[in-house]
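testing teh design pipeline on a random one, pls ignore if ur not involved
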């Protein structure tokens, strides 16, 4: 399933509930899920990492739906057609 299809299915199921929330509430849930992912990574708990990555992606897609962002096309433009890695501060 492509990201755009997944986003549409999530929108069909959860958008009515998301509309009752504020974007700041959705963002706070995303932050909470990122915190849980951080803890799972710290513990190197692969099963929890998988679970928390799913939760983070779900919240990102929910926010994309809330703001009607075409996430799939933007990801392709930014990371496939272009290469922003030259701007990243990575040790060589």
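output:
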């Amino acid at each position: 399933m492509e990201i755009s299809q997944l986003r549409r299915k999530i929108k069909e199921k959860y958008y009515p509930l998301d509309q009752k929330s504020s974007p700041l509430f959705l963002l706070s849930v995303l932050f909470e899920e990122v915190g849980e992912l951080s803890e799972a990574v710290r513990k190197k708990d692969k099963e929890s990492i998988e679970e928390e990555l799913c939760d983070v992606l779900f919240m990102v897609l929910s926010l994309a739906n809330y703001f009607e962002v075409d996430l799939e096309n933007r990801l392709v433009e930014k990371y496939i057609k272009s290469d922003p890695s030259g701007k990243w501060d990575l040790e060589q």
